[in-house]
Write a structure and sequence with these properties.
Length: 133
Amino acid sequence: MTQRQKTFVGWAASLSLSAAFMFPAMSLAADSLTANQLGMNAIQSSIALGSGDVRQTAARIINVALGFLGIVAVVIVLLGGFKYMISGGEQTKVDEARKLIISGIIGLAIILSAWAITSFVISNLLSATADKP
């Protein structure tokens, strides 16, 4: 391909991209768009932001975070078990794997106790601040 052909192809591509972006904008400029045409009414009716209780939302966020941390702790225990299996009897690798397993179990215990404490506190908070008839 010669330099002249490359220049022509470049200009043609630039012109076609410019036209592709300009023609829809020019055709939409004739009418003013309403919220319904943009789909805003459908979005606003399906999203209920702020309709729930803040305490329950916080409880859900805490439960999700603790669940994620629980998964991480289980993966650490599994990684330690895998390292223990492939250690081949080398004492340094066995010790490293044992430390991973113990760390994972301690992490699980901390996560479970944190979940128990937060569920107790949040349930008592919800019952204490509930509207009583």
